[in-house]
Inverse folding.
């Protein structure tokens, strides 16, 4: 199977890995005006990764994680908030900047990001993150999230050597 990266509007991406996994990053689908209609109701989700707590990034994470029983990887405070809003904590995982989680053969490393992370009612949800996602075939993608440009992005590139940065 060929690997592919599909932009679904705003900060939302779908990755289809060479090993056949389907990974969603910041799954804001149903309310996202740029998301194609054909992508609003996924037929399969194997893994979800989230960069920060804004509603246009956590979007459909609880609904998709529950519907597909798939792991949801998020920064610690976002993970806790998702649990309080219905996500089963038994198959989701929390991470922090500098940490790496190996989920279904996909490695997700949390990096620094410069933004904010809160709910619409301004509940603070911890520090936002970027993500370096290494697929089963060692192909690496860097998702900066909604970060502003900062000097350590260059360091992230040298340390993790992503094949694609978005």
């Amino acid at each position: 199977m060929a690997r592919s990266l599909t932009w679904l509007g705003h900060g939302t991406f779908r990755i289809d890995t060479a090993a056949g996994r389907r990974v969603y990053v910041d799954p804001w689908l149903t309310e996202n005006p740029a998301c194609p209609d054909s992508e609003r109701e996924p037929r399969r989700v194997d893994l979800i990764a989230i960069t920060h707590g804004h509603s246009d990034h956590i979007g459909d994470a609880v609904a998709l994680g529950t519907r597909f029983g798939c792991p949801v990887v998020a920064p610690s405070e976002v993970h806790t908030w998702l649990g309080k809003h219905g996500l089963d904590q038994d198959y989701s995982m929390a991470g922090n900047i500098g940490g790496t989680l190996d989920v279904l053969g996909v490695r997700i490393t949390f990096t620094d990001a410069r933004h904010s992370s809160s709910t619409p009612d301004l509940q603070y949800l911890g520090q936002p993150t970027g993500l370096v996602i290494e697929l089963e075939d060692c192909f690496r993608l860097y998702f900066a999230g909604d970060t502003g440009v900062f000097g350590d992005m260059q360091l992230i590139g040298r340390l993790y050597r992503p094949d694609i940065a978005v």
